[in-house]
Amino acid sequence: MQLYLRSRILLVGALIAICGAWASAGEFVSLFDGKTLSGWSVEPKNKTSDWAVRDGIIVGRGDKGQSYLAWEGKGLADFELTLSYRLPKGKGNTGIDIRGRAVKSGRRRYESYHADLGHVGIGPHILGAWDFHFTKRREHPCKRGTRLVIGPDEKAHSSKIDGAVTLADIRPRQWNRVRVIARRNHFQFFINGKLASEFTDNAASGRLDKGAIRLQIHDKGMHVEFKDIRLKQLAPLSVGLQKQLLVDDYVIAEKHNVTRKLGKVKKVGIVLKPSLDTDFHPSWKKPDGSPVALDFGYYTSVIRNEKTGKFQMWYMAYRSSGVGYAESKDGIRWTKPLVGKGGKNNIVHLSQGFSCTVDPAVPWGHAEKYKGAADFADRGCRVALCYSSDGIHWSNYNDGKPVSHRAADTHNQLLWDPIIKRYRLLTRTDLGGQGGTSESRSTRIMVHTAENDVKKHPTAWKTVIDKIRVEDPKNEKNRWGKPRLQFNGMTMWIYQGVYFGLMDVYTMGQSHFFDGFDYKTRHDDDYMDFYIGVSRDGMNFDKSWIYARKPLVPRGGPGSFDKDGIKPPAQIVTYNDEHWIFYGGMDERHYSKGRHLNIGLAKLRLDGFVCLASGDKLGVIVTKPFKLEGDRLEVNVDARAGWMRVELLDENGKAIPGFSGDAAKQHKGADELRLGPKWTNQADLSSLKGKEVRLRFTMKNAKLYAFQIRMERNEKR
Q1: In 3D, which of 596, 606, 648, 644 has the Cα closest to residue 623?
Q2: What would the DSSP string read from start to end of 493-550?
Q3: Is the peptide bond before 558 cis (omega within 30 degrees of 0)?
Q4: Rounded-to-integer distance, Cα 19 and Cα 38, Å
Q5: In the Cβ-directed half-sphere of 117, how many Cα atoms lie within 13 Å?
Q6: CA distance 413 to 407
Q7: Exposed/middle/buried for 244, CB within 10 Å: 0-12, 13-18, 19+?
């Protein structure tokens, strides 16, 4: 990478982590070094023996009754906290204090907002609930599954959270993942990726604005354990001119009578078929004698070259043949130029599990514009890296030698992350054996740590999260006792500030290849699904759609070319106000010798991955406060069967005259990607520019996908 880019990241030295993690402002740091309680203190001091470290885990035993382990940072205000907890005995009452502070008078000695944890069966008023430890204020109930809003007058309104965590999502005696987000006066509590409860504290006085974090032992004789404790301090919410996708609650403070729904793709059909000798298994045949394209399109990358306007595709041919290359002017009609050795085929690299990405940090024509990651031939199933100026002629980093440990026989990916301004590397990690009935699969994510120069430092990779599993709450097992749902692989696509995990989920039903040639039945075992999960940090991905069994691109029906498997691409192409999703379609099961693939295309509405949908009941969505940096608003909405309107509120939720109530136009029957909301006597938002505002969307029978603050109307798109 050229010197001008390196100069932008000279602050790498300042990114060295607290407690050994890589971190900077807005990044996660570890609060627990895995060896000692350094940075922590026990309260009260006479219960020091209640807390200890064993085998890299914080262990709390309530031999003397209630006690706390407090992190030394006393002035924490806005942050995101993640940790794992378990109750080995199966019972107990524990929790997490946030914004805690000692007080000298009142009914308590310590005030805090308290995220309650405990064993399954302890009740919704504890497990997954928010508790309020106040000395003088009223302590409102906020049970599991509840959204609570406390008004300035201390009156509270509660509503039900759709899709909240349930007891079935929580694993007794096992590790459960907890996430707590505190931002200004809004607080969210997640368990195993699902929202448990949340509240907004609008009280005129007595709010807790900053304080300490404490882990709790509540009951005498109980045993609780904590690990993987990480904290990210949050800057004030910045919307700026970035489009805000409503795939999660990142910008949302309140929502009522709306449901988050997965977008529906429209399948175009097959766009590329196997045709060259290298596309087929060298000897396996179907019953009719035709060759089997066992691996064709099993791993696929597609980009649109912004300089030439041409689509480029890299696909897995037969595994020992290597990587095939194809081109298209329109993304529908493809050719396979014979650019391989001797002009006899289209093989451009000898590897499997290959993906190609285009590096936006360097210009077109640069020697390293295209970057690849794969399992190179004879490299022990370990990921190696390569680069190219045109995507056809490739050179290897590190002389083709591996840059990390096993495994790499599924989809590998090297990509530039414009958010953290570093390279990321995704590959596979073995959980069980290396094949057969003992095999169990997971994914890991690494970041580059040396000057952002992969050529100079090809092995400078640090694992930031490892052994990413499906962790299906249903805990289904295959006949060998391994998880039935496994990550065969995952690639990452970054769009509008959101990390999308393109998740290749294998429902494992076989362990070795078998004679399977049933091209009519849609099988319910040994198949592949394509799910998406979103993340704001590029490490912790939501898996809700897997748990709901809702793939982004569903398998086809009986007899279809993609009935038994959908293989995700390395990235998604955004083109002509649509998202184009190229995928490998399997017409037989994963371990079938008759597995034959074609490459298909599905299209999706722009920003249409996930929406917030309302029905006949009036739906309301209120954003968190943010500084208005533009002068107009655009909304991606489908209200063909209903209507939608947008009001502006001040930072405290009070309606702004001229931009609320009857002044806000009701847009009936609208279906627009960039709807410009209207207000009576207000041409735009210029009079509010620079102020802290909230948006309130009210809608009926409508779907809301995204919004964006923009500059003057002649702004170039």
Answers
A1: 648
A2: EEETTEEEEEEEEEE---SS-B----SS---SSSEEEEEEEEESSSS----HHHHTT-
A3: no
A4: 10
A5: 33
A6: 13
A7: buried
Three-point CA angle 678, 680, 685, nearest 5°: 55
Q: How far is CA 168 from CA 121, 353, 544, 572, 643, in A?
A: 11, 36, 13, 33, 36
**439, two tokens:** 């095999």
Q: Are 553 and 586 contacting, i.e. CB atoms less than 8 angstroms apart?
A: no
Report which secondary-structure segment, H or E, holds 8: helix 3-8
* 639 and 702 Cβ atoms separated by less than 8 Å: yes
User: Rounded CA gap, 524 and 647, in Å?
Assistant: 47
Residue 627, strand partner residues: 692
Identify the three-state secondary structure at position 694: strand
Tally of CA atoms within 13 A in the half-sphere of 75 that contains its CB: 0
Exposure of 151 in the CB half-sphere (CA atoms within 13 A): 6
Token pair listed for 412: 């590998």
Please, which residues have CB within 8 angstroms of residue 515's CB and are 6 or more apart in sequence?
592, 593, 594
Tokens at 613, concatenated: 């949908």
pLDDT in tens, 436-466: 777 788 899 999 999 999 999 999 999 988 8
* pTM for this prediction: 0.77
Q: pLDDT at position 475, please? A: 86
Q: What angle do CA 653, 654, 658 make, to 5 degrees?
A: 125
Q: Is 13 helix (H, G, I), strand (E, B) or coil?
A: helix
Which pLDDT score, from 0 to 100, does residue 106 have?
66
Mean pLDDT, all residues of the chain? 91
Say if CB 601 and CB 300 are below 8 A apart: no
Residue whose C-alpha is closest to residue 584's, from 273, 229, 303, 368: 273
Q: What is the mean pLDDT of residues 663-668?
A: 96
- Distance in angstroms (rounded) separating the CA atoms of residues 118 and 555: 39
Q: What's the CA gap between 360 and 309, in Å, rounded?
A: 16
- Spell out the long-range contacts of 307-314 with Cβ–Cβ below 8 A and sequence spacing 24 or more: 307/364, 311/573, 312/356, 312/391, 313/272, 313/582, 313/599, 314/348, 314/349, 314/354, 314/355, 314/356, 314/372, 314/391
**C-alpha distance across the termini of the chain, in Å:** 28
Instruction: For residue 12, report the phi and psi dihedrals to the nearest 5 degrees.
Output: -55, -35
Residues 494-526 have pLDDT tens digits of 999 999 999 999 999 899 999 999 999 999 999
Could you report the per-residue pLDDT of 324-360, keeping only the tens digit for each?
999 999 999 999 999 999 999 999 999 999 999 999 9
Report which of 609, 629, 599, 607 is spatially closest to residue 692, judged by C-alpha positions.
629
Torsion of CA 673, 679, 680, 684, to 10 degrees: -90
Q: What is the pLDDT of residues 576-603, one digit of tens each?
A: 999 999 999 999 999 999 999 999 999 9
What are the structural domains of the chain? 33-233 (2.60.120.560), 246-263+611-710 (2.60.120), 266-398+410-605 (2.115.10.20)
Cross-strand bridge partners of residue 160: 146
Residue owning tokens 């806000």: 664
Cα pseudo-dihedral 507, 508, 513, 518, rounded to 10: -40
Distance CA 554, CA 564 (A): 10
